[in-house]
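In the previous lecture we treated proteins in isolation. Real proteins rarely work alone, and many bind small molecules. This record shows how such a complex is specified: first the sequence, then the SMILES for thiamine diphosphate.
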Amino acid sequence: MSIERGIAQGPQQPRMVRSPDWGMMEGLAEACSPERSLAMFRKMCLTRYFDLRVRQAQLDNDIECLIYLSVGQEAVAAAVAVVMEGCYVLGQHRGHSVYLSFGGRPERLADELLGMSTGCCGGMGGSPPSHDFERKIVAHNGLIGDQVPVAAGIALAAPGERVICFFGDGAAEEDYVLATLGFVATKKLPLLFVCEDNDLSVLTPTVERRNWSVVDVAQGFGLNAVDITDDPWLIEYWTTTLADQLPAIINIRTCREFWHNGTGSDNNAEWSRFDLTKAKLTEIGLRDKARAIELEIKTFVEDLWNERLQRRSAI
Ligand SMILES: Cc1ncc(C[n+]2csc(CCOP(=O)(O)OP(=O)(O)O)c2C)c(N)n1
Ligand SMILES: [Mg+2]
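The predicted 3D structure, ligand included, written as tokens:
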């Protein structure tokens, strides 16, 4: 198959290609069914409003554990999930978006963050290990990138199942991540890797950490690979295309709105994919339906947190 490399050679490239339009293709939103466009937006809203509520809960001292928020990066898991829902999926510490987009139960995540025994990890794990094994969601233990070899193990152990593995641009630098990419290419395992490239490892931008790109290295190993921005229709397009050509990797340029962990904000996100998505939905005639979904999800999240907080105070 022929897939454009999507990134020019050179040590400065990882930083230079960050843009809200990187790899964009004309007409994708127009060609997508309204149902699918709105399904992606619904998942984006759920992650965004859930995590904004998590942030508020921590500011109110209702949450004691460390939290890693997906706000700003909602489109990545949302768009992959509409194509590949039902697959095994592994996430990293910033994984509420993966949990919520792939059908993890929101009340169990809220309970987990509130330290309740009804949480998805018995209230003992906090933000990264947001598992829902019944829904094939395997979350993180905090060792950066270790979900990558684990995902290869699941793909080996569960023949016939496709596996999706999310990791960060920082995790890509771990030796076991690179070794696994080579192993998966050799064994031709049915794995889709998604690198959520927010250009930061804690606080250090990519250009200060490495002179190579994930896509170049993955292609060198023989994986199909593309490097794109976090437009949901573009992600949907490439996920659909690559789902039949695994193993593959999609490197997705995205923006973290809050600090590495917790509720702080150290810089302005380079773009707001949430606002750009709403503008595009308006352009393709879905403004009113999108507004109704946004309002519905906001209310759902607010009611859910109020109810879970009441339950906890009754314990
Ligand atoms: C093996 C290992 N090395 C280092 C760390 C410390 N650490 C925690 S998060 C992080 C950066 C992760 O960056 P990235 O994978 O890009 O995820 P992001 O936080 O940007 O979503 C590092 C180095 C760790 N948890 N595990
Ligand atoms: Mg990162």
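Summary for your notes: The domain at 13-256 is CATH 3.40.50.970 (Rossmann fold). The first strand starts at residue 88 and ends at 90.
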